[in-house]
Q: What sequence folds into this?
């Protein structure tokens, strides 16, 4: 007998008919003799409806009250799903985040989970009852309702799985797994049967938004096997797990990309200790997140310093950097907000040489100029002109034969 | 500085504009230097919307899950009201029934309040914050969400007022107070400035549905002065309180009535100990509530036994009674489902004689035949043919000069 945690997102529970379909899937697990915990989001559209009500009153409502408001969305779903399960003759009990004791910090609208008290839920599971938990929400140590931010239901599911030492945490979405790259760009993209947590983190943060990053981190930290599946199509989805002997022997698992990048360079900065902090400190103070960072030594004891930010932050960052440039006595500030980042991701990189040169060769063959390069243990990212995104992704997909099952 | 508890029902918070209007009223109290706790219902229409969702799944959903579902209605309102108060520069914090620790028994959908832990709310009030509480809901000792049943928000408000020893509990509704009788029947009906708890209980249970009976009982038990006011019109409403020297010297406070009655009589039952139980036991076992009960000794050691039930229960009761009649060897069962009950209510009755004869005289003058009579310390009820309801109410209203302010 296994203990399974399943999570269904807003689209999967977007109507009474879909809630009934979810109930049927849950009942099948229960009937097979496994124990099951189900985490659900608000019905699609419901969160937007609630946000609209709030915005009619105040464009910027207090986060504490916003959390009280939004958390009702999932509470509606848990009750309806239990009713649908009962109707099928399946014992089920619903729990809000507060009831199941998903303890968070008090950062309203983006709270982080601190711990879960699983004891009560355990008793219900032992009694043969399906446990249905409201995703996305918790309580702080004062009993205030908190929410985990958009996509937080994934994190709730992983946290429940961790607390209950579940055998698998299954995230049902509207895609049927993790692909080697976005099929809308490369139709030959292939669904992966398995991927490691580290690869998944790189894929997610680089733009393949299948799962919330925090959920993947959480799963990796607490050793929870995570599976992404489709709510609407049959299939085994993609298992996200630790490296083991059964892993595919692929050098590369996939190609991620990020369209919304902009790059800025400060040229001819006098090279002295603390220069990186002098440049990035003011950017960070303006709450702008910096992605890639590259520093080259130039001639004559000066350095060139380049970094990327989200495209929306480009104008503000340019302004800050220009001011910094004056203070530091740099030569020039230049920038470009029509660039994209393309990344090869794969744990196989660690033990295989020649990946980078194959990558650069494939791009060169297509005449794609590489503007920046950054590497980590399991990924190589390049920045290229926006217009080369599709071409670059397809060239790399072919160069690494990602459409073929690994041997 | 006074501590005021205000309660606003679903119609009063039925739209964003109305919520903003409630916020303005609440802020006025706060600005005057008083402390204030506000209890709110779900926005009108919201509870029905949620019920419809549930009914799509199961016509008879589990009460526990129904409570989880319905309690979201008030939770939405508390968040929106706090946002509206913030927008007006008024500090406010929302609390669900569970957060404020409204402890109930576990009778889902009709739970009864056991106690309230007021400490946390006290701290917020001390800090000058408006406390906004979700009506209608609580938690049992297992932390399950419970609801108090329709109209339960009144009870929540009274319970909060009792726990906090509030100076007054103000119930805002769509009527501007308690009237001597229903103004739709007698246009000369006069609003009462004051009424006692006992009178209010008789008025409410007899059909003048201004306040939930349980709320009035609760207020009486915990000595909470209760005031009924209109959300939409200015005015002092009606204060429901204990008898004191300042009370109006009225003999009669009002005339209540109940349209939905039916009466049944079992004739010629052999008069022996336990006969009342033999007759009413099977009725009660069928969950049928009995209202008036009258037993007359007939001739020849038999008795006639008459009682009234809700008109909807008439066919079932007739069936049960016919069976009982056979068992007891009674002569006959007769019934009438086109009767109404009209009641005079007033604590003044206790110290004034001749009330009953004035009543019977007034009805006789109009040719209204009295079918049953029942009396208590502060009320006299008569059962008459349905067609005499309006005529009877107006005749009594005039006979006791209820349209005139008492001297």
A:
């Amino acid at each position: 007998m296994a203990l399974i945690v399943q999570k269904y997102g807003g689209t999967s529970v977007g109507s009474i008919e879909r809630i009934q379909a979810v109930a049927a899937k849950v009942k099948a697990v229960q009937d097979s003799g496994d124990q099951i915990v189900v985490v659900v989001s608000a019905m699609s559209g419901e969160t937007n409806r609630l946000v609209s009500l709030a915005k009619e009153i105040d464009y910027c409502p207090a986060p504490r009250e916003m959390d009280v408001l939004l958390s009702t969305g999932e509470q509606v779903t848990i009750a309806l799903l239990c009713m649908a399960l009962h109707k099928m003759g399946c014992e089920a009990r619903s729990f809000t985040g507060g009831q199941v004791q998903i303890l968070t910090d008090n950062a309203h609208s983006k709270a982080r989970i601190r711990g879960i008290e699983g004891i009560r839920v355990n008793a219900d599971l032992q009694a043969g009852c399906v446990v249905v938990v409201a995703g996305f929400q918790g309580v702080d140590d004062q009993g205030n309702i908190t929410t985990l931010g958009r996509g937080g239901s994934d994190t709730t599911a992983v946290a429940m799985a961790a607390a209950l030492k579940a055998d698998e945490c299954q995230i049902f979405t509207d895609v049927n797994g993790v692909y080697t790259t976005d099929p809308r760009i490369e139709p030959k993209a292939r669904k992966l049967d398995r991927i490691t947590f580290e690869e998944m983190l790189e894929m997610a943060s680089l733009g393949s938004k299948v799962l919330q990053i925090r959920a993947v981190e959480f799963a990796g930290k607490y050793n929870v096997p995570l599976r992404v599946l489709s709510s609407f199509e049959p299939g085994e989805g993609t298992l996200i797990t630790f490296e083991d002997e059964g892993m595919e022997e692929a050098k590369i698992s996939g190609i991620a990309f990020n369209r919304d990048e902009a790059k800025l360079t400060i040229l001819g900065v006098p090279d002295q200790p603390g220069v990186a902090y002098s440049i990035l400190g003011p950017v960070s103070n303006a709450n702008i997140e910096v992605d890639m960072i590259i520093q080259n030594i130039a001639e004559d004891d000066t350095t060139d310093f380049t970094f990327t930010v989200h495209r929306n932050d480009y104008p503000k960052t340019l302004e800050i950097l220009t001011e910094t440039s004056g203070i530091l006595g740099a030569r020039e500030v230049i920038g470009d907000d029509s660039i994209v980042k393309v990344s090869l991701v794969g744990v196989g990189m660690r033990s295989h040489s020649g990946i980078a040169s194959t990558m650069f060769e494939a791009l060169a063959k297509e005449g794609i100029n590489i503007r920046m390069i950054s590497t980590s243990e399991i990924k190589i990212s390049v920045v290229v002109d926006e217009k080369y995104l599709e071409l670059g992704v397809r060239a790399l997909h072919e160069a690494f034969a990602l459409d073929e099952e690994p041997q």
